[in-house]
């Protein structure tokens, strides 16, 4: 039957959400929607039945998962997901906000080569160190701010935070914790991964659909735009208080400092 998701990867963009989805769907007890439905941000007026119709068929023993990274920064998403089911498990993949912003910009640049420079978009006034928080690439990384909206509806015990950095250096360890959080057996282990040196990413040795190795698409592992180290320093200073508040709230130090 097609069922509403019991778990949703709600964020964050350029954090490693696609990797988490691809890795978790290698688990026999997980069925995941491959595309991003954007139901709780863009398509909410289409109704829950439309949303359910997109889901893969599952057995009673299987968990349905979807991912749409923009949910994390969408004001209405927490309330809407709560109204669907207050038991929904939420997965948030986070990564150093400065690196995340550069990755976000790199992706946009590949589609729109004539956009302003990263520095130009990051600051309202660079000499005064005034960061432009209205630019989405900067805003998304203010994790502590966005998390507040979620905590109005969901307890921390229902939100699992994945380190985007550890997802690359220790995919089996991070995915082990995801499996524990979902309440399923640790089936995905070290033996599922190999490191692809050209991409600088771990890949699955075999995917659910075929016995072939599965690496993330061409767009993953792009070389980032070179940014002036001083700009990076200014952004680190900007994010520091948000990062510290985030660590304190979730009880986990991601060591981005």
Main CATH class: Alpha Beta
The percent of residues in helical segments reads 25-40%
Profile the largest sheet: 5 strands, parallel
Mean pLDDT: 95
Structural class: alpha/beta
Total helical segments: 10
Structural shape? globular
Total DSSP E strands: 9
Low-confidence stretches: none
Query: Could you say how many structural domains there are in total?
Result: 1
How is the largest sheet built, in terms of strand order? 2-3-1-4-7
Radius of gyration: 18 Å
Can you describe this structure?
The protein has 257 residues and is α/β, with parallel strands linked by helices. It has one domain (7-250): Rossmann fold (3-Layer(aba) Sandwich), CATH 3.40.50. It has 10 helices and 9 strands. The longest helix is centred in the last third of the chain and has 22 residues, at 229-250. The chain starts with 6 loop residues before the first strand and ends in a 7-residue tail after the last helix. GO terms for molecular function: [heparan sulfate]-glucosamine 3-sulfotransferase activity. It is found in: Endomembrane system; Golgi apparatus membrane. 3'-phosphoadenylyl sulfate binds at residues 14-18, 95, 103, 220-224. Disulfide bonds join 203-215.
């Amino acid at each position: 039957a097609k069922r509403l998701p019991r778990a949703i990867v709600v964020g964050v963009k350029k954090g490693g959400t696609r990797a988490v989805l691809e890795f978790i769907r290698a688990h026999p007890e997980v069925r995941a929607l491959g595309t991003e439905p954007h139901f709780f941000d863009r398509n909410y007026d289409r109704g829950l039945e439309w949303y359910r119709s997109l889901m893969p068929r599952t057995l009673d023993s299987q968990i349905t998962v979807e991912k749409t990274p923009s949910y994390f920064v969408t004001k209405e998403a927490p309330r809407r997901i709560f109204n669907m089911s207050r038991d929904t498990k939420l997965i948030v993949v986070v990564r150093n906000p400065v690196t995340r912003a550069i990755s976000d910009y790199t992706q946009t640049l590949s589609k729109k080569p004539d956009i302003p420079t990263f520095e130009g978009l990051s600051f309202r006034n660079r000499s005064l160190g005034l960061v432009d928080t209205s630019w989405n690439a900067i805003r998304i990384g203010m994790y502590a701010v966005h998390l507040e909206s979620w905590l109005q509806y969901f307890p921390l015990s229902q939100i699992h935070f994945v380190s985007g950095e550890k997802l690359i250096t220790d995919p089996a360890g991070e995915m082990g914790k995801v499996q524990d959080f979902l309440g399923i057996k640790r089936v995905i282990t070290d033996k599922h991964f190999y490191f692809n040196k050209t991409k600088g990413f771990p890949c699955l040795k075999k995917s659910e659909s075929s016995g072939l190795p599965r690496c993330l698409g061409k767009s993953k592992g792009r070389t980032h735009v070179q940014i002036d180290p001083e700009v990076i320093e200014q952004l680190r200073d900007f994010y520091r208080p948000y990062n510290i508040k985030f660590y304190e709230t979730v009880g986990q130090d991601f060591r981005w400092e």
